[in-house]
Amino acid sequence: MPKKRKSKSKPRRKRRSKASSNLLPNFFKGIMRLFAFVGILLFRLAPFFLFVAFVGAIYYGLQTHLYADPHFQLNVIRVKTDLTFTAKEIEKMSGLKLGDNILTADIQKAARKIEKNPQIKTVQVRRILPSTIEIIALRRFEAFQIYSIKQDRFYAIDENGMILPKTSLSSLPELVLIEEENLRPVDLKVGDNYSSSSLLSFRKLYEFLRTQSVLATESVEKLSLDRLGNFSVFLGDGLKIYLGENYIRNLKKINSMKHILNSNDRENIEYLDLQYKDVVVKMKK
Which pLDDT tens digits describe the chain residue by residue (285 residues)? Predict the structure, then answer.
């Protein structure tokens, strides 16, 4: 019997998957959809952009017109001060110049320039349209004096500790000296701050001291704070009053000492110690 020939099977061609064949068209479709979305969004936002551009053009035009308008030139710089400086001196400190446009004048910068002077406490600068700028400058007042051992000089300070230009090689008789054993000022400079955490206590002590009828007319030479936190008061005639840490409570006892303070023996008293329940009166030897 004749042998049957084996039929050769033709190799099958691999069919491309629908996913791979549709990948490129889908990509382009996505791009087209994105462009369409952006186009619609821009079309809807076009009125907004036109409005912003319109407002910006009007603002720029008005600004240019106002800045060039001589009606808004700075013609008057009005200064109100408490006589520490003249109006011309304050005006010069501010850096403002007559003839400048009042709308472009940097009033905040002018205020900062004036505040650089250590004698100035507060500054207010404001525009008064159409052509006036008002400056209100208030000065610092001397509250106490401090002493620098290294410089051998007395310096006036205000209630917040700002070192003022008033200095002297000798004590300033119109100011009370404050002295702290834990804080010895070395290099002091006008315009710096006397950094003392006890300054507020000194202020409270001095203010309360002046409310006591017995001491209302007394001359106070010095307020002192030792290393242990004990306060003392030195009167003008040299009499010392030791108050301790609780200075307000103990100072109230001074009213009971009126007869001693007004007696003929006062000049023989070295100090009064009010720290204890029974007041100690130490006589000079």
Answer: 455 555 555 555 555 555 555 555 666 677 777 777 777 777 777 777 777 776 776 666 555 655 556 777 899 999 998 877 889 999 999 999 998 889 889 999 999 999 999 999 999 999 998 899 999 999 999 999 999 988 899 999 999 999 999 999 999 999 999 999 988 777 889 999 988 889 999 999 999 998 888 888 889 999 999 999 999 999 999 999 999 999 999 999 988 888 888 888 898 999 999 999 888 999 988
If you write DSSP's letter for every residue of 30-54 in order, what string do you get? HHHHHHHHHHHHHHHHHHHHHHHHH
Peptide linkage before 130 cis (omega within 30 of 0): yes
DSSP result, 202-218: HHHHHHHHHHSTTTTTP
Does residue 269 sit within a domain? yes
Question: Based on the domain organization, do 158 and 265 belong to the same domain?
Answer: yes
Alpha carbons 130 and 238: distance in angstroms, whole number = 61
For residue 279, give the CATH number of its domain: 3.40.50.11690
Residue located via tokens 């006890």: 198
Q: Tell me which residue of 120, 115, 112 sits closest to 84, measured CA to CA.
A: 120
Coil, strand or helix at 199: helix
**Domains identified in the chain, total number:** 2
How far is it, in rounded angstroms, from Cα 141 to Cα 160?
10
Q: Among residues 110, 139, 168, which one ends one of the domains?
A: 139
In this structure, the strands spanning 220-225 and 231-235 are: antiparallel
8 Å CB contact between 135 and 77 = yes
198 and 128 housed in the same domain: no
**How far from 142 is each of 7, 84, 184, CA to CA, in Å?**
122, 12, 20
- pTM as predicted: 0.70
